[in-house]
């Protein structure tokens, strides 16, 4: 029995080594073939000069990197706001009390409208519409002077409203995935409706929706660049655009792309690891 087990383990190791060798050779062949085809193409020198200029990258990257911290700050603040807004909307939509019907109706309208409007259009509408309202209000008495007019804040509000609708549906799916018997058992041991929701239903729902939530935040990190369209000059993508316009070299845009990848790829790998751990 011991000899047979050792033989199976040795065969498994040989099979793993053979698979690793085949995967390595096929990867080298495919990537090497693509690299050879690109590097020997007639237009490669023009592409290299326009998109992969080391001198331009070296000169522009420090300013882009400095501006990228604004993206990170907007992302972090918007993420917290989206989690709170999404949870409130999801709880409103899953409530069954007749007195809360107006809240359910508002929650349904909110998710339908803000999921249906493209994020870039929402950034435009809020980024340019709110300052116009404030300006008109100032001329007629100043009733809306309390509204913010800074492009960064308005862009963050637009992203929060857009992604809050998606996250609310993710939360709602998680709440629906918790079996009704869990709530009934909580009520049976003496917990109130609010306590059963807080201590029994919500913890299970949040655990089940972790991966899709992280997936939404990967998309959010990329869409933070949309605030550049309403005049946020200190944002990484906008800074790359300014550097590109100086000499019509697109290397700064590649630098901005690398910064976004530096954030989104680790988040994506974290999501994969999380999903694998849940599948075990």
Write a concise synopsis of the structure shown.
With 280 residues, the chain is mainly α. The chain contains eleven helices and no strands. The protein is flat, with a radius of gyration of 26 Å.
What would your notes on this structure say?
- By secondary structure, the chain is an all-alpha fold.
- The protein has two domains: 1-40; 53-279, MetI-like fold (Orthogonal Bundle), CATH 1.10.3720.10.
- It has eleven helices and no strands.
- The longest helix has 41 residues, at 54-94.
- The chain is flat and about 70 Å long.
- The two termini are 28 Å apart.
The major β-sheet equals: none
| Gap between N and C termini | 28 Å
Q: Total number of β-strand segments?
A: 0
Overall SS class: mainly alpha
Question: Could you spell the SSE succession in H and E letters?
Answer: HHHHHHHHHHH
Measured by DSSP, the beta-strand proportion falls in under 5%
Radius of gyration: 26 Å
Helix content range of the residues, please?
over 70%
Q: How many helical elements?
A: 11
**How many structural domains does the protein architecture include?**
2
What is the approximate shape?
A: flat
Task: Give average pLDDT, whole number.
Answer: 83
Q: What is the class of the largest domain in the CATH system?
A: Mainly Alpha
């Amino acid at each position: 029995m011991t000899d047979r087990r050792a033989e199976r383990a040795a065969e498994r190791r040989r099979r793993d080594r053979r698979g690793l060798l085949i995967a390595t050779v096929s990867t080298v062949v495919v990537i090497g073939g693509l690299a050879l085809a690109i590097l020997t193409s007639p237009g490669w020198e023009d592409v290299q000069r326009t998109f992969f200029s080391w001198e331009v990258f070296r000169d522009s990257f420090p300013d882009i990197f400095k501006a990228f911290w604004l993206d990170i700050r907007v992302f972090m603040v918007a993420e917290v706001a989206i989690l709170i807004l999404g949870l409130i909307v999801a709880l409103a939509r899953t409530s069954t009390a007749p007195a809360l019907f107006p809240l359910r109706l508002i929650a349904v309208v909110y998710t339908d409208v803000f999921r249906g409007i493209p994020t870039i259009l929402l950034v435009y509408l809020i980024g340019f519409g709110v300052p116009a309202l404030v300006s008109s209000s100032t001329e007629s008495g100043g009733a809306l002077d309390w509204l913010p007019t800074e492009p960064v804040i308005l862009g963050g509000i637009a992203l929060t409203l857009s992604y809050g609708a998606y996250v609310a549906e993710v939360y709602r799916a998680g709440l629906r995935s918790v079996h009704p018997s869990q709530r009934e058992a909580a009520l049976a041991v003496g917990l109130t409706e609010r306590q059963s929701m807080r201590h029994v239903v919500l913890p299970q729902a949040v655990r089940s929706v972790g991966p899709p939530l992280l997936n939404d935040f990967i998309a959010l990190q990329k869409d933070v660049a949309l605030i550049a369209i309403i005049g946020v000059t200190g944002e990484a993508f906008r800074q790359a655009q300014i550097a590109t316009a100086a000499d019509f070299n697109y290397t700064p845009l590649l630098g901005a792309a690398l910064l976004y990848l530096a954030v989104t790829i680790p988040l994506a790998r974290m999501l994969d690891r999380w999903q694998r751990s849940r599948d075990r």
